[in-house]
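Provenance and format

Records in this collection were gathered into a single text stream. Each protein contributes a sequence line and a token line. The two records reproduced below are adjacent in the stream.
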Amino acid sequence: MQELALKKPFAQSPKEILASLQVAPEKGLSARQVAKRRRRFGKNRLRTRRARSALGILADQFGGIIVWLLAVAACLSFYLGDLPEGFAIVAVLAVNGAIGFLTEHRAVRSMEELQRIAQVSTRVRREGATRAIDAREIVPGDIVIIEAGDVITADLRLLEAANLQCDESVLTGESAPVGKLVAALGADTELTSRTNMAFKGTAVTRGSGQAVVVATGMATELGRISKLAEEAEPEVSPLEKRLDRLGQRLVWLTLVLATATAIAGIARGREVYGMIETGIALAVAAVPEGLPVVATLCLARGMWRMAQRNALIAKLSAVETLGATTVILTDKTGTLTENRMTVARYLFADADIAVDATRGISDLPFKIQNGPVDPDQDERLAWALRIGTLCNNAELSREGSGAYDSHGAGDPMELALLAVARKAHIDRRSLLDEYPEVEEYAFDPDLKMMATVHEDHNEYVVAVKGAPETVIERCGKVLTKGGGERPLDNTGCAAWAERSHNAASHGYRILALAMKRHAEPEEDPYDSLTLVGLVCLLDPLRSDVPDAIAACREAGVRVIMVTGDHADTATEIAHKAGLGDGHLSVIEGRELRGVDAEALGQAAQRPILAADVFARVSPETKLKLVSLYQRRGEIVAMTGDGVNDAPALKKADIGIAMGQRGTQVAREAAHMVLKDDAFTTIVAAMREGRIIFSNIRRFVVYLLSCNVSEVLVVGLAVGGGLPMPLLPLQILYLNLVTDVFPAFALGLGEADDGVMRRPPRDPSEPIVDHDRWLAIGMLGSLITIATLGAFAVALYWLRLPTDQSVTVSFVTLALAQLWNVFNVRNADGRLLSNEVVRNPYVWAALVLCTGLIALALWLPMLSDVMQLPNPGSAGLLLALVASLVPLIAGQAILTLGMGRLGHLSSA
């Protein structure tokens, strides 16, 4: 029974559907039938997706390999009895976890809007009586009564439709309302063309009707999309992948260095247990304890900065992902356009008049080539505005009286006609006082027209609007500029039809406006009409989009439109937005039907993959396209606002939902929400993401070069038979104090002006590439040479005791690491004026760290724990001079352009 009804119900006649569902429309289901079907199909609701719990968010903060490496280091410290070191590392992990948890917990997602859709009431007919019931209690076979303003709560097959239209933009992506009919359709009819169906989650904008429920809950089209969103596995962010790869390298580097040092010491006759302990201490020293903390803080700051720019981030790692984006797959409706209809142009007998929607309320928006047009001076324009206002059932919001605002209740195209009339200071209520309505002929789906009859002194005026092909053939005359009329023959009608077709091919929605005067109100309203003109309507492009797309192109990011709308409409918007390179490649969704992502990926050079616009696409196709570009190694950002966008938003590397026009479903699936719905906000967020990654690279080079120097200082000293120049607790103090604050200061730096004029980095490129590993080795070696040199001079020239010589090496290493912050500038920056020198946080960090080093030397309790006796003025002077050697050498290399030290922060 139900299986038959659910198998393409749009292709079956109402009689066939009712028979298979065993229901009579005049009676509806019986109580027994309802109970039986509820047991079989369950309640009409979608599955609830469990929100991320606080515990889950907290657990996510401890999933990285570097965090686990630190945890192992802490356990080893506790095992060896080095409690201060163990507790210090635990404190680092706690701080890192707390920052990440608190930041992400603020972005925990709210309950799905889909559940709220299911909780409205619906009017059904059961056992011969019409009643309002909770929409969750609907079952297949219920007879539903629908009217303008209703939200459709199940998938319905229409049985009756009187002037019925539905807004399906959240489901299909089409901006214009869809007129509904009853007749059966072809079995291969696309979702966007199933005009005899009303779908769950859509809204009735006009008319009334009667329908039978053919699917509920997860069996509806909305449920199918919800299931796709559940099944779409979210991608691990590029930053998380890079940090994991870096962590894996650090694991091996740590093991190699620690093992080599222990073996070297044992080979020189040192105590085995002692050298194993030293090797473990070096392993702890090699791990950059500050890396996860600083990375988390930088991402958190980026999240806060993006929030100030109207971009809300749901997860920390998504902050950086935008900076790595190589492809943006953008929806059209509500993303590139404003998701509202506006009047763009009037076509008259001998002139086209454009409408400038950006003009203020005091300025006339109507223009021809010679300049502005005043409706009071142009009879055709005046009557076009009057007809659009009189032949209208919508009600414009009073809040929009000061601007070109088409918000209100009713059909979007009728609202647009009222809005443009308001710009000419025509108010519908005042106009109806001047032309009282006598009769209305409701929109006829067969004639595709509607008419209203109005008194005008001693005669009647009929205002008509409708589809151009039907209105034009009813017209025998056409209105001219001076208000006169001239005959309209077959040749003239054909010319008007051609003008209508040309305008439609440019993405416009076309309505014909006509009128006539007569003595009796009972005359046929559609006989012997006078054509006034055609009105072209458009869902307008957002004014800031072309500049934003141009900025993306300059940044090397490809923008591709993916929409459920018609190809002509999408192409027109794409041209205005500036997509492509002068020539647009447009592909319709049917060309991708039946082709899986793997097959497309194997044909990477085919024109189909170079398309600038994908039109008439389904949610599955959007998901397929995201997967395709990801398989090609692209970092994919996907924008959208409708329910149909949710699966692709979740699958994308960075899903971007609209905060104002977007559905809650889309916001739930996205990684980022734009509070202002502005495409320019994406560009600002991309810039922030690039800055963050650039800064992360900079402080990673700084941190690792400092850690490498610590390991080399101890390792070379042990291998060379020298006393231990540093103690494990001293190394940990440097890692936690003098490393973290300068690194964090580098993470707060601002980028150079060219950050958005460079192409996106290679998605496969690691955080630390070959050149940066060389730079790390070079900087670490310079610091090592200076520290061991100072240690040797203190021991053998100044003849200081070993413990005081250790203090000299500690101070030398600490200061050299602080000055090392200036060695991670760009090579093309000036010596005394570059991004590091201009960073005020760097200077603050240096002052703070210098104070902490001084405390370690001269605060009695701390100096005793750290085993740092005062080396005297000679020892301190030696440490200061030696610490400047790596800075001077590093700046010389940068200035002279030698080695691989340059461009450390380029993205």
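Adjacent record:
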Amino acid sequence: MILSINWKNFFIGEDHWAFLPEIAPRTFLMYIIILTGLRLLGKRGVRQLSVFELVVIISLGSAAGDPMFYQEIGLLIPIVIFSVIVGAYRLTTYLTAKNEKIEDLIEGKCVYLIKDGRCNTEEFDKEALALDEFFSELR
């Protein structure tokens, strides 16, 4: 039995070649939207990962998931998406390494909740962290 593979549908899916240039700006825009949204959520939702590392993980997972589940989505589209995400990640890493203001914008500023061995209660007002959560983290 010989398998008949439609190579156009295998790589492109049911979309047309004209759609490929639109994928890169859409992906980059979604990257910015996800980065902004996660930054607005604050540090509590992120914990160990930086915000833009979490964006990369979510974006790559989403890009990888659709072609696995939907036959009409070809493999070339996620490859373009992965390329844009990795490029945006590298650009973000480069910019944060070169510019402290961009680093503060993306990563946030450090807040010292313990200073000289004591709880720095003035800084708790700046963070969305309850005292019981803080003590839980200390344990």
